[in-house]
Amino acid sequence: YGLGYSRRFSFLTATATGLVELAAGFLGAGAVTLGPAILPWALGFAAGAMLFVVSDEIIPETHRPGLAEGSTAALFVGFCVMMVLDVA
C-alpha cells in the first residue's frame, strides 16, 4: 500500500504470500516426520557423491587422460570391498 498499490491488491498480495508460507510450513513438518526413514538413504547418496568428488577432483591420478573412468570405478569397488570386509 505504501508503494502506491490499491488496498485490495496489497491485501491479496499479503494473503498470497501468507498462504505460501503456510504450505511450506506443512511441507517442512512432513519432511521432518519422514526424516528418520529417509536419513540413511540421504546419507548414502551424500557419501557416494563425496566419494565421486574425492576421486574426480582431489586425487591427481584420476585426471590423467584415459584413466578417469577406470580409477573412479576402482575407487568405488575398493570402497565397497572395504565396507563388506568391515561388516563381515
Description:
- The chain is built from 2 helices and no strands.
- The chain has helices at 7-58, 68-87.
- Helix 1 (7-58) crosses helix 2 (68-87).
- The mean pLDDT is 83.
Question: How is this structure best summarized?
Answer:
With 88 residues, the chain is mainly alpha-helical.
Computed structural class: mainly alpha
Question: Which residue ranges are poorly predicted, with pLDDT under 50 across at least 5 consecutive positions?
Answer: none
Counting DSSP H or I runs of 4 or more residues, the number of helices is 2
Q: What is the overall pLDDT average?
A: 83
Task: Bin the strand percentage.
Answer: under 5%
Q: Tally of extended strands?
A: 0
The Cα radius of gyration reads: 24 Å
Q: Helices and strands in order, then pairings?
A:
Elements (H helix, E strand, L loop, with lengths): L6 H52 L9 H20 L1
Helix pairs in contact: 1-2
Which tags fit this structure?
elongated
